[in-house]
Amino acid sequence: MKEPEQQQTTEEEKMQDLRFKANGLLHRDEWEQSIQTYSQFISLCQTHISNPQTRPDPKLQKSLCLAFSNRAEARYKTRDFDQALKDCDEALQIENPHFKTLMCKGKILLNLDRYSMALNCFKVANLDYPSNQDSETLNGYLEKTKKLEFLSRSGAFDFSNWVLNGFKGNFPELAEYIGALEIKKSEISGRGLFATKNIDVGSLLLVNKAIATERGILPESKTQDLGENAQMVMWKNFIDKVVASTSNCKRTQYLISKLSAGENEEDLEVPDISSFRPEYEQECGFLDEKIDMGVMLSILDVNSLVEETFSSKFSGKNGDYHGVGIWVLASFINHSCNPNAKRFHIGDHVIVHASRDIKEGEEITLGYFDVFSPLKTRKEMTKNWGFDCHCKRCKFENGVSEKQEMGEIEMGYERGVDVGNMVYKLEESMRRWMVRGRMKGYLRASFWKVYYELFVSEKLMVKWGRRVPAMEVVVESVVEAVGGDERVLRVVVEGMKRNGGSGGVVEMEKAMKLGRGVYGKVMKKQAMRSLIC
Ligand SMILES: C[S@@+](CC[C@H](N)C(=O)[O-])C[C@H]1O[C@@H](n2cnc3c(N)ncnc32)[C@H](O)[C@@H]1O
Question: What is the DSSP string of 24-58?
Fold first, then answer.
């Protein structure tokens, strides 16, 4: 049996060894091993301190604080943010302010998009700034966090430089942002996102960071098997990433658990939108149990989105390049064939903006697929998504699809007959059926492909121009009905060029407004002009 003093010395030596070993592992970036060794040190150290028979060295408290801080750093590197934050709080309970810990906590909070809390950490760290530390790093974090906090509050994103640079270089800074929105029961299906005030075209609705994304090349393989195989691998990797993100973070788990798994949507709880704000407090009863894997797969099936690039000009990637991801708040947006919003993806963020003016109380809707296609194609697409669309446009087009002329027009469309003749026939039929207002826009959007081919062809316009409505009239009705689109913008720009250069001030203003519907109000005039002209 060792004497208490002898035992104390042995314990102190053991702690010394563990601390030394853990620090070495941390310096060599061996995160998991260093976490384990710090845990051994922390447990021994705590027992030692709480033992009434020992006279712990006062320096031991400092070592314990540092061990928590270092374990937080290692856990941050393994993206175990929940546990890393707990370690930071333990360290700060022992010593506050503690520069190293505050820096680590700030970085974790920044990763979790909790900008104002992160900013607070960096500000306090700045007060406790030790002279031997590199001030540039802290200043860099302070500046970045201030900017993100402002963006998240204001939604004042500006992509001008990135656009003017031809989408080269770093992505623009993006922060999570939620506009004037709420979640409510939807007449379309289950829950939906609704505007809480009037929103004008181009305004940002939300910016949401993905829980996980997976990107890769999916070759349009000559053998179907190869393509399907690549798709399966991509989907599997994506699922693994989602599972990894949810197992480390209770908040992510909680948020995902709120999504529809495709069944009994009408009975689903309507969560408060504030629980999707990054700063939402953790303690409010986050999930304790893991989500069942079967449920998780259904959730991913119903809510995952294929990425859409900011602009076809931007992607610079060939058609083989695909990305899939899950964005929680954006998952509450229902589909409509006459959507009022558009989405783009930059890095891991989805950016949703109003593609036309939206009234207070109106539901925000996206086209889950290309809505510039005829009813038949859209029905196939919604079938793939697993639902029947009951939007106003589908209801109206279902009615006219019974008409004989409609059958002839559809047949002509599929066979690719003279586009001028088709447009003429459709316009004449709409006149006879007394189709008015938005409904005209619906049908024109359905057969947009032929309108497009007609309006961009000088030769065809010479032949058919007098017998079909003016391009401006068609464009206005289509945009009012289904929102802005790059292809519509293209027709307008081609028209302006035909009329001698880039058109007058009024035409340019109209094109810029259309541009805001297509790309959102995220750039200054010069950048928008470079995109549309
Ligand atoms: C991404 S979720 C949209 C939010 C969902 N309504 C909810 O309550 O969580 C996609 C699912 O919503 C439903 N949905 C979306 N748009 C729809 C539409 N136009 N018609 C019918 N169901 C729709 C379908 O069940 C679809 O699988």
Answer: HHHHTT-HHHHHHHHHHHHHHHHHHHH-TTS---T
